[in-house]
Write a structure and sequence with these properties.
200 residues, Rossmann fold, 5-stranded parallel sheet, 5 strands, 54% helix
Length: 200
């Protein structure tokens, strides 16, 4: 799930409270950094109003969230001494760059870094269909093929059950390989994340 404050915060509530509550619930925070992000951040320091972008990033860093700086339009990640004290740790997070010329592949790479959600519905549907087919075969068709239900019938039923077990084992292996691939990247098979808009 992607959360974006200008679109997803409910109306009629205190902005800062809702913002921090939503931020606490996400797994990954994407900080979108454009070419003049640092210049505008510095200019806003003289403004008496609350800088919510700075608040979000600082809160994410302080609370130990997974923070991914996303560099746009050939922007570079600022140095720690160029940033306010509460954002000084931002350069220590590994960044991902998105380029216009390679946008699709760069976005795919970003999704892999975040961790793509596992298609649980398709996995469950395949298992359910296979289970129904096997049960139907064992209890409906096999008796008609082996009316005396001798050793051949028992062998056929055992064979079907073994095939079913093999299929489920293969499905589990596919799931486990996927989970192992994303475990170290997204802390699980799914991830919620929010975007901090760029200043470009």
């Amino acid at each position: 799930m992607v959360f974006r404050d200008v679109d997803d915060l409910p109306k009629g509530y205190r902005f800062e409270d809702e913002l921090l509550e939503e931020l606490a619930a996400v797994d990954v925070v994407l900080v979108l950094i454009g070419p003049i992000w640092l210049a505008e951040l510095t200019a806003r320091e003289a403004d008496a109003r609350v800088d919510y972008l700075r608040l979000e990033v600082a809160t994410a860093i302080r609370s130990g969230k997974r923070v991914i700086p996303v560099l746009l339009r050939n922007a570079s990640l600022p140095e720690g001494d160029e940033l306010p004290a509460d954002l000084a740790a931002l350069p220590s997070y590994q960044a991902v760059a998105l380029h216009d010329a390679s946008w699709s592949s760069d976005v795919d790479r970003l999704l892999d870094v975040i961790g793509r959600p596992f298609v649980w519905k398709k996995f469950g549907l395949r298992c359910a269909v296979a289970f129904v087919v096997v049960v139907t075969a064992v209890w409906s068709f096999l008796p008609s093929l082996f009316p005396e239900r001798g050793s051949d019938y028992e062998f056929a039923r055992l064979l079907v059950v073994l095939l079913m077990a093999s299929y489920l084992l293969c499905e589990y292996a596919v799931w486990w390989r996927y989970f192992a691939a994303v475990k170290g990247k997204s802390k699980g098979p799914t991830a919620q994340f929010r975007t901090v808009p760029p200043r470009t």
